Amino acid sequence: KEQEPKRPHIKKPLNAFMLYMKEMRANVVAECTLKESAAINQILGRRWHALSREEQAKYYELARKERQLHMQS
Predict the structure, then answer these.
(1) Half-sphere exposure of residue 20, counting CA atoms within 13 Å on the CB side?
(2) Which GO MF terms does the UniProt record name (predicted)?
(3) Which homologous superfamily does the CATH classification assign to the domain defined by 16-72?
(4) pLDDT grade, residue 31 (50/70/90)?
(5) Alpha-carbon span 3 to 64, nearest angstrom
């Protein structure tokens, strides 16, 4: 049985919240003494929900662009 040559795995594009987390994680880590990822994620989640629709729109637009790039590759 012949195997097809493996193509490199292409990661899924990040969604709006994940892009926000990626950008803001360093700020949260610097602000608080917490080192646990789960606790930091909770803080980021609360901050994400506190953002206005306009503030979130920036990340939704970035996510849309990432999806388009992903579909092209």
Answers:
(1) 21
(2) DNA-binding transcription factor activity, RNA polymerase II-specific; RNA polymerase II cis-regulatory region sequence-specific DNA binding
(3) High mobility group box domain (1.10.30.10)
(4) very high
(5) 35
